[in-house]
Every structure is written in C-alpha cells, then in structure tokens.
C-alpha cells in the first residue's frame, strides 16, 4: 500500500524545500530520505438493500530510502515502508491494526550526466498518476498499472537541446519478486510464490516497459509528456490461478504548470503571493489486466492543482472502464478534492474527501494526515 499524503507544484517545491545537508565530498558515505505520515481515514460504504457501514482506520505510513554512496554517481538504495498490510473490514474501527514492514527497493543506482540505471528491486517507471495527481486516495486506485517492487533493471538515456528540451527514453526489464523480500515483516505474512500466478510472476526478466519522457521544450518550458508501452508475460497456471494471459498496457500523460508570476523567490512564496495552476491528464489502456484473460480496462485520470503560497488545492477524477470478455461494460471511479497546508518546508497537513465506486459499491471517503519529510 502506498499513500502519498502531500503534493506540490514544481515552483512551490523549489521555494519551500527544506535545508539539505551538503556532502563533505568523502566517499563512501551514507544518506537517507524519509517520510513519516500519520493518517486517519473515514469510509462510509453504501450497498444496495443493506444498511450503510462506517469504517475508520488510523495508521502510520513511514517510508525510508537509505542510500550508501559509493562514488559521486553510484549508490546502493534500500527502501522500506511501514504501513497497513491488511485491509480493514466493513464497519471496523482500527488504530494501528494490521501494520507491517515491506522492503520496497534494494538496488544499485547509477546517475550519470546523460544516463542512469537501477539494478535490483525497484519501481517500474510507467505512469505518473500515483505521484502527479493530488489527493490521498488516487495512488491506490491506479495501483494496478503502477508496478512496484519488481526484480530486474531499468536504463534511461537523456537527450538535450536548447529548442527541444530533454527527451529521455527508458527501458525496463523485470519480474515479480518472489524472494524473502516479498514478505511483510513485523506481523505474520507469507512469501510470494510462483504458484500465485498473475502477470509478471514468471521468475525471469521477460517482462518489459518502454517509456519516453519529454520535458521543458523552449517554446513550452513547463510541459511534461510521457508515452509508453508495457508487456507482461503470464505467470504459471495452477489451482490458485487456473487461467492466465499476457498483459499489455499503453500510457499517455501530459502535465503542465502555469505560473501566474514566474518566480522561485522565497519571500513572495511565504507571503502567499506565489500562484500557479497545474493541470494533469493521464490515459492508460490495459489488455488482460493482471493476467486475467479478456479483462480489459481503461483508466482516465484528470486533475487540477492550484498552488497558493503555503496552500495547495487539488481536484482529481479517475474513471476506470471495465470491459470483461462476455460481460457488460461497467464503470468505476474515484473523485476527490484535497487541500495541503505546508506548515514548514518539512511538515505538511493534508485533508482529502471524495466519493468512490468499486465492485458495485459506493463509498464516501474522508482522510486527514500530517507528514514529516526530510533527508540527510
């Protein structure tokens, strides 16, 4: 489970960034990025012909990324997340229940001047809605195509010109992690197995994603575009997964920042005079989602972020159209409005409320969180 408790426009991020301790230039050395969130959710579920139930869930979501710096351009990354690993049941009121620790990343990260790569356990760089769309709940809704914790590698090369900006194609090859690192620690958990089936669960890096990111052309300096294609092989057929099919995905997204006054000066920002609008659109088409034959889906996420000094307001809608083989088309959706107050460059308060429909059930959502971000 990954839940982002805050979001920010590019200009605001530059202006409100907290202090970062500079390296002393000696290697090897150790660094860490961290985010600690306390979040409380209210979910009012309505099922036809049944009384509605209210589920509450309070929890910590603690993410860390420890990087052991070998050289100026080579690091070993170890990422972890402490968060709920079991879902709340309808009508349950829970505080810190079902919490475990997942190892999300273990990889060698190389960041050169024009190229970079990761080898090990990593998140596949495909799709941007998990990070770019505002709100507390959209990241979970689009998780079926935002693959995390894969074993393999990814390589990116960056082309830059004054007129065209940066064009960065990347290629990733990977497979689902079935090692001991697929377990959730601090509570009873089972290790993932090949017999679980599902797309990418092949035991070898025969799954691939090709993505092109285009950023900051001279004529439209605040533009960000992504297009990509992903193909995932079916896992083994077994009693747990009696049918299987290869999965294919296509993504296209556009994000654009519209600053009212182009400045990154700290004074106007802290005084609340910095303003920008950030529209974002992403479309993803999935064939045989999660390796289920004939289960085709389409995701359309649209969002608008308004940054105003220390405040960031967001509105996001994601529509998921489901086209099962031999069955009628259905629609699921998530709509949420959100607000973040940047107390300091490191502390954020967030509030998000909305409405969701999944599996024929409609829910009203409300969440509040406080987040501490930092690094050293």
Give a brief outline of the structure.
With 376 residues, the protein is mainly β. The protein is built from four helices and 20 strands. The longest helix has 7 residues, at 10-16.
In what range is the share of β-strand residues?
Answer: over 45%
Largest sheet: 16 strands, antiparallel, barrel
The helix-and-strand class reads mainly beta
| Overall mean pLDDT | 88
Number of strands: 20
Number of alpha- plus pi-helical segments: 4
Question: What is the helix fraction of residues, given as a range?
Answer: under 10%
User: Radius of gyration in whole Å, from Cα?
Assistant: 21 Å
Q: Segments where pLDDT lies below 50 for 5+ residues?
A: 1-23
Which H/E pattern describes the elements? HEEEEEEHHEEEEEEEEHEEEEEE
Shape: globular
Terminal Cα span: 25 Å
Neighbour order of strands in the largest sheet: 1-2-3-5-6-7-9-11-12-13-15-16-17-18-19-20
What key attributes describe this structure?
376 residues; mainly beta; 16-stranded antiparallel β-barrel; disordered N terminus
